[in-house]
Amino acid sequence: MTEKAETMDALDSRDNAPSVKKNGQTSLLDSGEDFEVLDEDDIDDDPPPLEDAGGGKGKNTEKSENKNADMDPEPSGQVDEWLDVLGNDQLKKKVLEAGEGQDSRPQKGQNVKINLKTYLMDGTLVEEQPDLSFTLGDGDVFQALDLTVQLMEMREKALIQTDAKYAYGARGSLEPEVSPNAELSLEVELLEATDAPDLELLPPPEKIALASHKRERGNIHYQRGDYAFAVNSYGIALQITESSSKVDITPEEENELIDVKVKCLNNMAASQLKLDHYDAALKSCVSALAHQPDNIKALFRMGKVLALQGEYTEAIQTLRKALKLEPSNKTIHAELSKLVKKHSEQRGAEQAMYKKMLGNPSSSSGTQKHRAKSSWGLSWKWLFGATAVAIGGVALSVVIAARN
Question: Which intervals hold domain PPIase FKBP-type (predicted)?
């Protein structure tokens, strides 16, 4: 038996380990989230077939195979080769028990159900999740599962080894308890795959629950710093809330859907801010305020976006409106004070620049006055001189006439 197969036998013998519950902290307005609890590729080809890759079989070969068959308890469907899913040796898949054929593979967007056992690479059982259900490709689970389950056949059992970047990443996890940058080994069995429900025919309570679930998944991505994945989850939730309905819906249910939608828009704006996508974040805030004009979080984030875009006057007006709705909010106070000060400094710098461009008005005024005064003085001197010359000329004429 190979060393990797021995590792699998060791994994199978482990007992379940209790998971540790996550302790959340209440979010602040400036953290950018509407969360109830907040702490803040190419795919390779199929594996090779099971048949022997060698040439013809002789008697010695047959005896050797019979001997190996007696020694190796592995099921006949097992494949020893690892599939390098992404071509970077960081996400690998190996078939333990073959499934029902490639035609039985699930499609992106379908709801799948799996049995999952998660291990550390030393064989420690982290978590066991029987009948785990999620929508394939929606980001409901970490990437390693989303990418590899698409390659599994119905009833297939597979072993997956993943780098931390496709699992719990540099932050690790409190529930289940996984240390930062931990590589994982996953045992997965694909149980079923069904088409997603028709949103138009979905009863309003189920639609609300589904949208809320996607939003909560977005919150998890946000907490982990995976802002692009968070935007994706919030976008899916928004599509659910905005979908038309062919079933009756009460005003209360409609308001609840709008409430979920506004929360998604607020959270999406927060994620877009983290990604420096200011235009998109502003659009999300505007959409949220179209439904709830006095939504504090939407006003606050809109003010921040406008400030980042250099629209200080409009940003200050927006934050003042938010502060008027919630005068005791220290976060809005601090943001508004900071923005007013920054705006004042900017105006001072602009005025200084304009003076430099146009020259010093006070100096120019003094120079002009001096020039005017000098010109006036020269005028009088010129007039006095001209008068004197004229008088002298007249006197001279008189003298000459008298002599004649």
Answer: 109-194
